[in-house]
Design a protein that fits this description.
Layout lengths: L2 H6 L21 E2 L4 E2 L11 H4 L22 H12 L3 H6 L4
Antiparallel strand pairs: 1-2
The protein binds iron/sulfur cluster (2 copies).
One iron/sulfur cluster binds next to loops.
Length: 99
């Protein structure tokens, strides 16, 4: 991979849940009280993942496996990254850039 390609490579998704607590994707349902998509699980995964992952429409959004587009100044993600580093599990998330 060239340096330019390396620069363009998205940050991995670390399943912090931040984006699904900002707005729901086209498959989600917004829970106004909890202020998150109602399909975001307690461990910050998508409860619909296995149902929607192969839908062509899901390629654009939520784009499982495409990496994170909300990594800048994202405290929630930074905390999850710190946890992954503490637990030495980073390789899992480098390989599996899915939400
Ligand atoms: S790492 Fe990024 S894409 Fe993944 S859940 Fe967090 S904010 Fe969303
Ligand atoms: S990816 Fe799943 S949890 Fe996230 S907004 Fe979409 S349906 Fe909800």
């Amino acid at each position: 991979m060239s340096t330019h390609e390396e620069e363009l490579k998205p940050s991995p998704c670390v399943q912090c849940g931040y984006c699904c607590s900002k707005c729901a994707c086209q498959f989600g349902v917004w829970d106004h009280e909890a202020r998150r998509c109602e399909f975001l699980t307690e461990d910050k995964k998508c409860a619909l993942y296995h149902k929607i992952k192969d839908w062509p429409e899901a390629q654009m959004s939520p784009a499982f496996g495409a990496g994170c587009s909300s990594s800048l100044f994202n405290e929630v993600r930074m905390q999850k990254v710190a946890q992954i580093q503490r637990e030495n599990k980073w390789e899992e998330y480098e390989l599996q850039t899915a939400r």
